[in-house]
Amino acid sequence: MSTQNGESHKTIAPMNMKVDVEKRNLIDYAANLLGQDRTRFVVDAALHRAEDVILDRRVFALDDVAFDAFVKVLNEPRPEETERCLNTFLSRPKRWK
């Protein structure tokens, strides 16, 4: 939902955590180097890690013949049109953003 000035309303949920002082100080130092506050830094890092975990969990269940065919297709040169389509696909916004 957007307001008249284009701002969106999002439900905000608290995330509370405990961490030892040395770790907190390291996080604060890194956040400060980037000009961010602790919350923004931790949320950005957690989101990046979550995306990596989700993308790494994609499973391809293929028998030997199908796997060999899949690898063959990956290793073949792609026509220009296919390359353009692939680049368009890869430049789309991620579903979780």
Automatic annotation (TrEMBL):
Record-level GO BP terms: regulation of DNA-templated transcription
Gene Ontology MF terms: DNA binding
InterPro entries the UniProt entry points to: Ribbon_hlx_hlx, TacA_1-like
Pfam family, one: TacA1
The keyword Hydrolase belongs to this UniProt entry's keyword annotation: no
Keywords from the named record: DNA-binding, Repressor, Toxin-antitoxin system, Transcription, Transcription regulation
KW Transcription (keyword) present: yes
PANTHER family per UniProt: COPG FAMILY HELIX-TURN-HELIX PROTEIN-RELATED-RELATED (PTHR35401), CYTOPLASMIC PROTEIN (PTHR35401:SF1)
Family of the protein in this entry: Belongs to the TacA antitoxin family.
UniProt name for this protein: DUF1778 domain-containing protein
